[in-house]
Specification:
globular, disordered C terminus, mainly alpha, about 240 residues
């Protein structure tokens, strides 16, 4: 029971961070301008349960192969650094919110979210979490679903209902920093538990990994700033402009 609660809390917090400024959060805001927020949230819930249920099943299945357990733990730890860098890079809508469908709002939102989540960082994070907590698949599924609803609900309230804008850059950098920190901590724990090497060598490895993460973050931040300044320097909001 205790492990399930820990898995739930960790999963919920991870997905909330992953969703800040993510494509699916932007999609929720866009749909909320067309449909009732309650129907959008129901669609998000259905899509998340199905999509993350698949992700948990994949992650849980992977952990059954004992001969690759070492690689699974290493990839799971490093993946959080990758998710942090992905958060800095950011996502954009590809017109999913404007695609016409003959279905009702709930089904339309569910289908759009399910497809948008395929291969997205929140789905990959769910797989990583399932490998990290292989004995708590239910806790992971409930946690990631809760995190998705919280993040998209906050996005809808702030971006649509209150009509307020929050700095996208600030949200992304905070979320990315937490992700990278989790990745570095997980990497150190992996090195410490799996390799019998000196403390100095462990610190050297972590220093190099931190340096690489910082350099990659700097490059992505500068690239985003260049793109924003050349495209539209004023538009720095988590809330997309929606034509009515």
């Amino acid at each position: 029971m205790h492990d399930t609660i820990i898995a739930f809390l960790f999963a919920a917090a991870t997905v909330v961070l992953a969703e800040m400024g993510d494509k699916t959060q932007l999609l929720a805001m866009a749909f909320a301008a067309k449909y009732k927020p309650s129907k959008v949230m129901l669609g998000v819930f259905i899509a998340t349960v199905l999509n993350h249920g698949l992700a948990v099943a994949v992650g849980n299945f992977i952990t059954r192969f004992e001969h690759i357990q070492l690689w699974i733990r290493a990839i799971a730890a490093i993946s959080f650094i990758f998710f942090g860098l992905w958060t800095i890079r950011g996502d954009k809508l590809d017109g999913e919110e404007n695609k016409k469908t003959r279905f009702g709002p709930v089904i339309t939102v569910s289908i759009a979210f399910f497809l948008a989540e395929m291969g997205d960082k929140t789905q990959l994070a769910t797989i990583a979490l399932a490998t990290k907590f292989p004995h708590s698949p239910v806790g992971i599924l409930i946690g990631t679903t809760t995190g998705m609803l919280i993040a998209d609900g906050v996005g809808i309230i702030i971006g649509v209902v209150l009509r307020k804008k929050i700095p996208e850059r600030t949200v992304k950098l905070i979320s990315a920093a937490v992700f990278i920190l989790f990745g570095l901590i997980g990497s150190y724990q992996f090195i410490h538990s799996e390799f019998s090497i000196s403390f100095q060598l462990k610190i050297a490895i972590m220093f190099i990994l931190t340096l690489i993460s910082a350099a990659a973050s700097f490059v992505l931040i500068r690239k985003n700033e260049t793109t924003l300044s050349s495209a539209n320097p004023v538009e720095d909001s988590i809330c997309p402009k929606i034509n009515k």
